[in-house]
Amino acid sequence: MPSRTSYTSDTPHVSRTSPASEGSGTTDVLVVGGGIIGLVTAWRAARRGLATALVDPAPGGGAAQVAAGMLAAVTELHYGEETLLALNLESARRYPDFVAELTEASGRDLGYRRCGTLAVALDADDRAHLRELHALQQRCGLDAQWLSGRECRRLEPMLAPGVRGGLRVDGDHQIDPRRLAAALVTACERAGVVFHRVWAQRLDVDGDRAVGVTAADGTALTAGQVVLAGGSLSGRLAGVPPELVPPVRPVKGQVLRLAVPERYAPFLSRTVRAVVRGGQLYLVPRENGELVVGATSEELGWDTTVTAGGVYELLRDAHELVPGITELPLTETRAGLRPGSPDNAPLLGPSGLDGLLLATGHHRNGVLLTPVTGDVMGQLLAGGPLPEEARPFTPERFGAPRTQQLEQTV
Ligand code: GLY
């Protein structure tokens, strides 16, 4: 997770070169950023036969190393995000096939669990909040069943006796983002993606077209198309025309990891979410015994400090929800940066500068949106039209001019 203030590093450049880039030193596609969004974009591009490179000092790192991996299109629904909901649901629908394909391509297990989610309320205010969420879900035609507190505890006996009610959503699943990232790295390698393990320092523009990037070690990486997929850092690449800089900001999330010893298993059988005094809390139990507890949401710039206050609040609320949690070993505390955008939705597609596309701003939904983002970007990079589901999410909605590239795709 980046905690630095500049989009540079002195990490050494690894000089693996794909057959496609030998001699010319150029590729069809260059992806800037090796988080899960950059990786899935590179994988999909390479699978379409495009010579593809990716520039990042540590591919597979970034927010996926912190994220809990909820695929919570229904339980993480927010007012005013109904357009985003359609994209989230579409990506959730694609998840089973995506997991099967990536498992096959990488030979790795992704920790995908079709376990469902229970969202619960602890006090009267929380219950009112959850009732409103249920009403919104019903208006959107989503499947969510209201349960009494007793019914919630029957499903999850470790819940506190005071739980006032909840929503059972059997369609909200989970995946292990660390395994997802590792699998995408392997799949990219197997598909021939070239990794430049160095920071991208500057976008290179020739006339009115992006033509590549200059890496921090001075190497010029040229490409027919550049995809900026730098997560929360996407607005910091030098050389992007100021009016086209993606409006992406870091939103800090602190997350805890605990281990469930054999004798307590199954501690929880599904993801449990709650609103506790207005704050979002979730507990994501993995099959391997890991229990992820998240997350704070803090607008503190590039700060990734794990604070006593952050850990305290998460544990305090988690203890209220599931008192037995204080018996578990605490194995990890970590903070990451979500790439927030002004409307909490991603920026997908042409940037406004020919040759430069964006795949960024996924905010709380990067893991969920990985399959659909890969499909959309793969199709665009191969010269296809902008897919219907991506049309509300072009950078144009934030004022980026319509490019020749976008004219051709819609
Ligand atoms: N989607 C969970 C989070 O952003 O905390």
From TrEMBL:
Q: Name one GO cellular component term.
A: cytoplasm
Q: Name one GO molecular function term.
A: flavin adenine dinucleotide binding
Q: What is its EC number?
A: 1.4.3.19
* Organism the protein comes from: Streptomyces griseofuscus
Asked whether the UniProt record includes Protease among its keywords, one would answer no
Keyword Iron-sulfur part of the UniProt annotation: no
- What is the reaction catalyzed? glycine + O2 + H2O = glyoxylate + H2O2 + NH4(+)
Which residue ranges does the record annotate as region Disordered?
A: 1-26, 383-410
Q: Which residues form the FAD dependent oxidoreductase domain?
A: 28-379
Q: Which GO terms describe its biological process?
A: thiamine biosynthetic process; thiamine diphosphate biosynthetic process
Q: What is the name listed in the Swiss-Prot or TrEMBL entry for this protein?
A: glycine oxidase
Lineage top rank: taxon: Bacteria
Q: In which pathway does it act?
A: Cofactor biosynthesis; thiamine diphosphate biosynthesis
Sorted keywords for this record are:
Oxidoreductase, Thiamine biosynthesis
Query: What NCBIfam families does the record point to?
Result: thiamin_ThiO
